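[audit] Reproducing an earlier prediction to check determinism. Same input, same settings, fresh worker. If the tokens differ from the archived copy the diff job will pick it up downstream; this log only records the rerun itself.
[audit] input (307 residues):
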Amino acid sequence: MDRFLSLSVFVSAVEEGSLAAAGRRHGLSAVMAGRYLSSLEDEVAARLLQRSTRRLSLTDAGRAYFDRARRILDDLKEADDEAADLQASPRGSLRIAAPVTFGSMYLGPIVAGFMTEFAGVDVALHLQDRFVDLVEEGIDLALRIGRLADSELAARKLADCRLMACASPRYLAATGHPRAPADLQQHALIGWIGEVTTAPWRFEAADGRVVEHPARCRFTANHTAVMLEVALAGFGIVYGPDFVFAPQLARGELLPVLPDWRSPELPLHAITPSARQVNAKTRLFIERLRLAFEAPAPWQRWRDEKG
């Protein structure tokens, strides 16, 4: 007999509390529903349900099998829904939240290409350096950089960023290059203040030893674009995400500081309110992000260009 239908009848019988109700759900008589259940039990060589004239009850084997069977059916339904969505042209509004600097630097061309490809979709891009409540604020998709706290939100990793220190050639020519994190105390430092802080500055040596520098900064700001401009003006050493500094590093306007020391990785994730029931336009946009940021990501390519 049809194994999929047998599985469906079994799950429905448990959920409905009777074989007759399970049969009605699938357009079968109670007798035929019972035959499908018996066929499934023969296949797995185990009694799944204890049946009487008044009630059904799961056996120990049936309880474990039910959890797996329901998950299989849910996954299959989700796959069917996804395939159906992809056959239809996505329409409606897509609301995206992203950090200010990252969004302004990297999302414009992706959004423009997406709207060109899918003329029925409008995009609202909310740039803000705080963690938005996706459900409360009606956001379909958020980009988050850094380690994620435990939550019920669904996350898909897209790429890695990395914290780093850098400075203008003019500044380093005047002050010299620091050789170890301890040397930073002799330099003017530029750092971040805000909801998500980068202090203390962390560096990892080739042997795995981690050093944290307290980073007493002479200049701090809650916007990386301003930090970047102060560094380009030759004031001091700035510490922040590599995606901010990548264009200037590629042009030689900034140089890496402590290049033999690694700083922490910052994973980039696409966040949705739930892993299930993600609409087609959101899934399609996440895929465009994945393609745009696959290794090497745009902010990592300056290293290859510099050899």
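[audit] rerun output stored. Observation attached for the diff report: The chain is about 40% helix and 25% strand.
[audit] end
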